[in-house]
Amino acid sequence: MTNIQSVQLNSITPHPSIEYWSVCKVEALFEMPFLELIYRAAQVHREHFNPQVIQLSTLMSIKTGGCPEDCGYCPQSARYQTGVQNQQLLEIEEIVEKAKIAKSRGAARFCMGAAWRGPKPKDMEKVTAIIKAVKALGLETCGTFGLLQEGMAEALKEAGLDYYNHNLDTAPEHYQQVIGTRRFDDRLSTLGKVRKAGLKVCCGGIVGMNETRKERAGLIASLANLDPQPESVPINQLVKVEGTPLENAVELDWTEFVRTIAVARITMPKSYVRLSAGRQGMAEEMQAMCFMAGANSIFYGDKLLVTDNPEEDGDQRLMAKLDLEPETEDNRWALEK
Ligand code: SAM
Ligand code: DTB
Ligand code: SF4
């Protein structure tokens, strides 16, 4: 265990854009005494955000299953028998209907996911029309469509996309153990295109994929060293789906997941840290601890892409018990603070 004093205090104060996070420095945060780590993360959270507020995003799968990639965690890969029903790109009307419902239930952002390695040029006309229609409802828009070819990020931006979600997923050293059909650098290259087009970046990863703590620190360091840092950082706990290569991954202790949230908060002080996949199996107490550790965003709605998420009613009850409110333009503190 690291002595609290040995983790330099200046590593939690401003200038993230010029601070380099070595894996060692991130590992040292992971090794802090648990409650000190949470306390430190809670302090950083309060420097930049209203701690009573949670950003709500609703997810919808707009193209499901049949993906050619071999991501070892994913129920939508065509290579694994997971029972997921394939569905071609949905029609605009069906997506707009779901987006309206999400908005009426209090979601501020609508995230659309497609089980592609990346969009084909022929998909872009329909995808951009979908984004325009959702944006017209007055929702923030986010898309996660995989690797982008030249010019695609600009077309998405032009259509009204606010955020692009593209996760690093795991540490560079662990990447090839989980995914064989692309490289970590391919992800960085798409993230570069997304930034260049002026889109906001949503980029995070998954924990609980048999990685070591050092590899978890490697994932967080890779995210924190993106310059600028991502506006939004989803931290997913692996949803173990039968039929995927990771269905029997070793269960991580809950404290290790909460530590990961806290370390993400400390290293990326101005980013929204989203407590993402895996909430369905989490006790309310654990989720509350994640909020204390600096998580300030969730996926809201009873489905993620193909797996279950807590019901909206349950989330509303939990937020009420914790005196948390959904984020609106009025209760949000300036990101630049
Ligand atoms: N195909 C695109 C891609 O891979 O970027 C977009 C959709 S993909 C399903 C989006 C993200 O979902 C992945 O990057 C991964 O982080 C997350 N994900 C997929 N399956 C998961 C699982 N079983 N548990 C937790 N997160 C998962
Ligand atoms: C992210 O980081 N997590 C979301 C979203 N971005 C697209 C996806 C979670 C997927 C969980 C498994 C499933 O339902 O497919
Ligand atoms: Fe395809 Fe994305 Fe699933 Fe990988 S994570 S198999 S790229 S849908």
TrEMBL record:
Catalytic activity: (4R,5S)-dethiobiotin + (sulfur carrier)-SH + 2 reduced [2Fe-2S]-[ferredoxin] + 2 S-adenosyl-L-methionine = (sulfur carrier)-H + biotin + 2 5'-deoxyadenosine + 2 L-methionine + 2 oxidized [2Fe-2S]-[ferredoxin]
GO biological process: biotin biosynthetic process
Xref: InterPro entries: Aldolase_TIM, BATS_dom, Biotin_synth/BioAB, Biotin_synthase, Elp3/MiaA/NifB-like_rSAM, rSAM, rSAM_sf
GO-annotated molecular function: 2 iron, 2 sulfur cluster binding; 4 iron, 4 sulfur cluster binding; biotin synthase activity; iron ion binding
Residues holding [2Fe-2S] cluster: C111, C142, C202, R274
Function: Catalyzes the conversion of dethiobiotin (DTB) to biotin by the insertion of a sulfur atom into dethiobiotin via a radical-based mechanism.
Xref: HAMAP family: BioB
UniProt-recorded name of the protein: Biotin synthase
Lineage: Bacteria, Pseudomonadati, Pseudomonadota, Gammaproteobacteria, Pasteurellales
Gene name per UniProt: bioB
